[in-house]
Amino acid sequence: MAKRGVEEVVMVALEEKGGAMAVVVEEKEQKEQKENEKEEEEAHPYAFHVSGPRNVAKPNWRDLINSSWKDTNYKRSVIACFIQAVYLLELDRQENRTVETALAPKWWMTFKYKLTQTLIDERDGSIFGAVLEWDQSAALADFVLIRPSGAPKAILVLRGTLLKGPTIRRDIEDDLRFLAWESLKGSVRFKGALEALRTVAERYGSSNVCIAGHSLGAGFALQVGKALAKDGIYVDAHLFNPPSISIAMSLRNIGEKAGFAWKRLKSMLPSSSEPQADCDEEIKDNSLKSWLGNIYGDKASMGLKQWVPHLYVNNSDYICCHYTDPEGKTEENEANKENTGPTNGQVAAKLFVMSKGKQKFLEAHGLEQWWSDDLDLQLAINKSKLISRQLKSLYSLPASQVTKRPR
Question: Which residues form a coiled coil (predicted)?
Fold first, then answer.
């Protein structure tokens, strides 16, 4: 009996030791797994330190004297990084990345911003935008006592089309919506982006808020910014590779047979009554222009031309290259020249054009080019007929001023 008792004690001890060893092995495996995940993150092509900008410094105490945000190249590069973060937010969601392995945060944390809101498409649950705000606590940790001059308090960033299974259907649907209707107002994303931008503009003031987007996201940003501008709320706007409406225009003008096919295709695409209403509004604005000009004079009209979006296009990108087409002097333009562009030296938009010769489409349409070291941009001073067409309704007095009577 005594011998049996000793054996039982030995067996129990071995079992306990084995259990402890199992725990140690499991902990070791978990540690190795985390290290592997960390190595994978570090080697990931979308990791900030792999594909992010090389010569764009994070904010430091020197910004108290001379803010980096006053440099247009710095500002463009950082905002492009913020848009990249939105693409990665959706990829992180699709790939079930954890807080420790997520790729997106480094793209905003580096510049002392924090994520305060994600914009979700209720149709498929995908992330299509985000609101980033200045992170004062993170800045203080690096002895940045105040927000650098020119740095927005909040910025709404919108991604473009993501050719991945979970979101491609809704992204393409909005692409086709723009192609068919030259407007994105019928999309749930338009409504969500407009509400988010209006909220932060009311909280921080429009001069402290920025909106930015790439590709399809640039299309949303342009139309959302325009909607607020009509209400007298002017926010800084930066649009990278914005889609061109001339794609739809050219398809509809190639002949009767093609026109019939276009109508058939258009009837199958997502529709909305809002774009038509927007067009009607522009027509009404244009017809009232001369009458309002006689009443209020040019000074009142000039005061409305305050929203100047920044457009970044590549000549080799057929999606946005039509923005560089100059405004032709046709009879229609001559008859409505007061509606097709600003006067007295003002510009409707700042158009930055990059031309590296012939490039492949993916490279010319990519977002990474806008923070590259060898970027050579030229500010186009010619009038763009597409910009004039899209923004001409802003050159008329808003409804609130139409009701006023001169004294």
Answer: none
